[in-house]
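The authors assume throughout that readers already know how a fold can be written as discrete tokens. For illustration, here is how one protein appears when written out as sequence plus structure tokens:
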Amino acid sequence: MNTLFKNIGLAALLSLFLLPALCMAADEPQEQWQTLKEIYFENKTILEDADDWLVIEAPKRAEDAAIVPIHLYSKKPQTASSYIKNLHVFIDNNPMPYSANFHLSPALETVDISTRMRVDQYTYIRAIAEMNDGSLHMVKRFVKASGGCSAPAAKDQVAAMARLGKMQIRYRDGDPDEAKPVQVVISHPNNSGLQMDLKTRGYIPAHYVEKMQITLDGKVLMTIDTGISISEDPSMRFMLPAGKAGHGLLKAEVTDNKKQIYTIEKQI
């Protein structure tokens, strides 16, 4: 279960399939999740309320449904013998509920990830850690927000396309014996296909980031499968290992659904 729906057509099909559950989601969120669980995890056991393993932070009520901050971190270190292999993120009531999958390497050492996501209606946001031994551990957070997936873009489309693909790597090089935060940002409209062009009154075609890969000296730290739930101008913040393991040539490669590829690299 390591792939996301890769286009808006399949996402729409899933929304139609789940329509009865979506309509009842506000009253019966557990029933909605059971439907998603059966689709993506079949009969696998998921250990719920795994707060001793994983933490998810998000506002109870979002100030802006189109840019809801999400912070995920593990209370256990990544080691060669025990590590989070995949970190699945679900936003139950979004048009594309399976919103992101972080494929993680033990070389990352610390799982501490922040991003911004769209939330379309009151919903649970779930993070499920899939360990290298196959076990599944889930935490969840209920967020009150609405309209995030169809909200107008913050930037004019012409201006957004003029900056398309411009990337930044931001970091603070502090104590070499401590893990350091790094942020990768790309200018991209990440159009969901559900937003309306206020000038033409037609829908803006879907154009979104579907994959981001982060490497350090050629070694993959993480690969992220994403979709329309990621906010405009996608941002990923994570922690690099302490000491020598956290230094080298950091490279980010981003691919969108039009198969355009954008890259940036920086000596850390």
